[in-house]
Amino acid sequence: MSDERENLTYPLFGQAVRELAQSVANDGFEPDIILSIARGGLFVAGGLGYALDVKNLHVVNVEFYTGVGATLQMPVMLPPVPNVVDLSQKKVLVADDVADTGRTLKLVHDFCAEHVAEVRTAVIYEKPHSQVNCEYVWKRTDQWINFPWSVEPPVVRRHGQVLDA
């Protein structure tokens, strides 16, 4: 990974999501559900939901990155885990902000694959070493990405549900 950074602004994010949605529409894929990978995927899923006129959005919480370039050994789904009955025989579009290693997307994709009619993935950024080749990608990069929602430090630091002053 280079020391240069990809800087995504809120206006550019709006353009990226709109172009990503257009790619999905041009491909003829009509998802029944957009499954967002929290947290960064929440922003992407919301924008895609509006642009593709999909109101059925679900969320899966996955923890993997603990800092810049620092990860857990494996991504972990945090409760509440989506009920596969809600996804059964649906066309699902999994949305996230970035496919970096691809391990988070792979975990969610594999979780869905046996239960849904079809699952595809959409991300703003995909890195060349990702384990998952997403069907819909706005931009490919090998740089670390500064997202507008995570470039500033938190207003407060929290550990679990306990405020860390």
TrEMBL record:
It comes from the Bacteria. It holds the Pfam family Pribosyltran. GO terms for molecular function: glycosyltransferase activity. InterPro entries: PRTase-like, PRTase_dom. Residues 11-152 form the Phosphoribosyltransferase domain. Gene3D superfamilies: 3.40.50.2020. Keywords: Glycosyltransferase, Transferase. PANTHER family: HYPOXANTHINE PHOSPHORIBOSYLTRANSFERASE (PTHR43363), HYPOXANTHINE-GUANINE PHOSPHORIBOSYLTRANSFERASE (PTHR43363:SF1). This is Phosphoribosyltransferase. It comes from Streptomyces armeniacus.
